[in-house]
Design a protein that fits this description.
The chain has helices at about 25-40, 45-60, 65-70, 75-80, 90, 95-105, 120-130, 155-165, 180-190, 220; strands at about 10-15, 110-115, 140, 175, 190-195, 210-215. By secondary structure, it is α/β, with parallel strands linked by helices. The relative contact order is 0.17.
């Protein structure tokens, strides 16, 4: 984690459905594993398991937080049975375009940091498969093993990320995420935020944040101050 004072702004990147496309259907695979966990460990029907899973997700931001609060489950065992069981190797491959985008960001002007609601093992696994793990200075993740779990969109999670990344202030925090809720809360805290919509998404009734994009490539246009002059004709 960052220890030395650094005046550069920090650009926070969400991971799932942000660094890779929703069309990979990782979220769908995750939902099936979560439902299976609810069925097995809470002795629920498939219908009841799915309903409780969705209720906890809406109430707490993560299904696992509801499980910890109300059922005292072993969060690390949950991680091994759900997140770590995802067949990511079959669907996530090195992304040369993403790598080029991140390499084009000028490290003398900005620092890159991962910011996820997943546990660290999942986050690191995804960026390694994408072949961009060496381009980030660190990661702020949801600590499943903590007595009290904190995740986006709770204010404490953003403050935790800001502290761990060593961002001088909220005004020095830039953020991209596919979640409308996460972006709305980040924007309210003073972070400069871009909400990433999937190409298939309809326009939300109201924008979550100052910026709304449909491709990470648009970051070049809205934040040109963070990019070096490109040699590939994209700027």
């Amino acid at each position: 984690m960052a220890q030395v004072k650094d005046s550069r702004p920090v650009f926070f990147f969400d991971i799932d459905n942000c660094l890779y496309a929703r069309s990979h259907r990782v979220h769908d695979m995750m939902s099936k594993l979560i439902d299976a966990y609810f069925i097995t460990h809470l002795s629920l029907s498939k219908k009841d398991a799915n309903e409780l899973h969705l209720r906890y997700y809406k109430e707490y931001g993560l299904a696992i937080e509801g499980l910890k609060r109300h059922h005292k489950i072993d969060a690390m065992e949950y991680n091994r049975q759900v997140d770590d069981q995802l067949p990511l190797d079959d669907v996530i491959k090195p992304d040369l375009k993403l790598r080029q985008l991140l390499e084009d960001m000028d490290r003398s002007k900005v620092r890159l940091w991962l910011f996820t609601n997943a546990y660290i093992t999942h986050g690191k696994r995804v960026v390694k498969l994408l072949d961009v793990d060496d381009l980030f200075e660190g990661i702020t993740f949801c600590d499943y093993g903590a007595e009290r779990m904190i995740c986006k969109p709770h204010e404490e999670m953003y403050l935790k990320a800001q502290k761990e990344a060593g961002a001088p202030s909220a005004a020095d925090c830039y953020f991209v995420d596919d979640s409308h809720l996460n972006c709305r809360h980040a924007q309210a805290l003073g972070w400069t935020t871009a909400h990433l919509l999937d190409p298939s998404d309809s326009e939300p009734p109201s924008q979550a944040s100052k910026y709304q994009i449909r491709s990470l490539e648009e970051l070049r246009t809205i934040f040109p101050q963070f990019f070096r002059a490109s040699t590939n004709g994209q700027l």
